[in-house]
Structures are given as structure tokens and as C-alpha cells.
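step=encode ok
step=design start
structure_in=
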């Protein structure tokens, strides 16, 4: 029965981590005394820093979020007719 390999955390700011990031999928590292097989198990995408913008505010700008009870869908035909008439009111 195979045991799970020992796992060590390497800080991404180190030279070793930067070196390992450049390696291929399956690599052998050699010293005078030993050979070490390094296999990339999973690739974790780099974390994106959160910007100061709240997602809800961005969604409101593009019209997906709740922008405060807009009536565009309910009165779209009236708005289209008003646009066709050039915004003129007919009495």
C-alpha cells in the first residue's frame, strides 16, 4: 500500500518557489549524492488581489444588479414610442 508523500509548504516569494515554477510537468533534479523527481501535482492559479470596487456596484453600472427599482422593463414600450416621437408629448 502506498503512503501519501510528505508535503512541505514553500513560500511563493522564495528563489526555490520561483525556480520550481519554471520546471516542466515531470523533472529530475540531480546532486552529487542523489536524484530527486519533481512532479507537478496541481497548478493553482495566482490569487488576484481584490480591488476596492464592490461587485454589486459594477453590476449596477452594467444593468445587471438591483439599481434601485428601475421601471425600464415595465415601461419599455412607452420609452420606445417616446424615442420614436423624438421625446414630444402628444395631448
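sequence_out=
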Amino acid at each position: 500500500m502506498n503512503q501519501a508523500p510528505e508535503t512541505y509548504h514553500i513560500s511563493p516569494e522564495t528563489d526555490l518557489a520561483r525556480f520550481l515554477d519554471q520546471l516542466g510537468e515531470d523533472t529530475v533534479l540531480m546532486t552529487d549524492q542523489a536524484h530527486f523527481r519533481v512532479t507537478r501535482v496541481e497548478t493553482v492559479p495566482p490569487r488576484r488581489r481584490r480591488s476596492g470596487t464592490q461587485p454589486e456596484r459594477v453590476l449596477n453600472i452594467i444593468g445587471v444588479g438591483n439599481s434601485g427599482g428601475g421601471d425600464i422593463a415595465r415601461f419599455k414600450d412607452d420609452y420606445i414610442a417616446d424615442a420614436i416621437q423624438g421625446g414630444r408629448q402628444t395631448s
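step=design ok
step=annotate ok -> The longest strand covers residues 26-30.
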